[in-house]
Amino acid sequence: MALIACGSKAQGTLNALTIPSIYPPSAPVIGFVTSGGIGWSFVPTSDIFVTGIEASAPQLSFWQGSNQVLATFGVPVPSTPPADSFSPIAPLFLSAGQLYFVSCQTSNFSGFVGLTVWGLQGASSLPSFSTSSYISQFASYHVSASGQWSPATDLPLSNSDYLLYGPNFQFQVVPEPGITGLSILGLLFCSKRQSCRTIKILRPDIKA
Q1: How many beta carbons lie within 10 A of that of residue 113, not counting itself?
Q2: Which residue, among 152, 84, 162, has the nearest Cα to 121 in the 3D structure?
Q3: What is the pLDDT of residue 154?
Q4: What number of other Cβ atoms are within 10 A of residue 97's Cβ?
């Protein structure tokens, strides 16, 4: 059995978080932390490639769960608040259904980190932010110098309803293959002379 494999078109580049490019009449509260960093947790609903980052501190990290750093990037020009100025990175693959955290901080977690405060879709009359439809289970945190994540204690909202805005990223959704399943045995390749040959896919769950 031989099949011709096809892929669907890739999605465009999307922002994980969206805030107004021009502040509403009630501008966001501007603050800072002097120890540790700030960030948020999320679960992608599809496989994604992270392609760009921005942050209000000179370093941004992606974490698997809350205790394993996957990758850390330098941020060229931190700003408070970030202003839709994403810097490209080599694509970082994140799996659908897995819990990740993203944080921004100084290299030793002991320097100044600026932030702005937003409400999910305007919660508690805070200026509004929203998450991408591919980002689920959002929650905002402060991260200590020892890597402990905790919600802000001085805000009355649940940390799923407010954002301490420091890190953000852009991503592309990984296209789903046109053909899936365990029964695929090979790909059909044809030369310009119309002679054809079958290339077997070696998989441990398929017997030749």
Answers
A1: 31
A2: 162
A3: 81
A4: 10
- Tell me how far apart the alpha carbons of residues 132 and 122 are, in angstroms, rounded to a whole number: 16
**Angstrom distance (rounded) from CA 127 to CA 27:** 7
Whether 103 and 63 have beta carbons less than 8 Å apart is answered as yes
pTM attached to this predicted model:
0.77
Let me know: does 38 contact 115? Beta carbons within 8 Å.
yes
Distance CA 24, CA 21 (A): 9
- Residue 31's pLDDT is 85
Domain ranges of the chain: 14-173
Distances (CA, A) of 172 to 53, 88, 134, 198: 13, 12, 10, 32
Amino acid identity of 70? L
- Residue among 75, 35, 95 nearest 169 (CA): 75
Q: Over the stretch 79-123, which tens digit does the pLDDT of each residue have? A: 666 667 899 999 999 999 999 999 999 988 888 898 989 999 888
Q: What is the sign of the dihedral through the CA atoms of 85, 66, 149 and 37?
A: negative
Extract the tokens encoding 62. 């992606």
The CA-to-CA distance between both ends of the chain, in Å, stands at: 11
What token pair was written down for 121? Answer: 């879709």
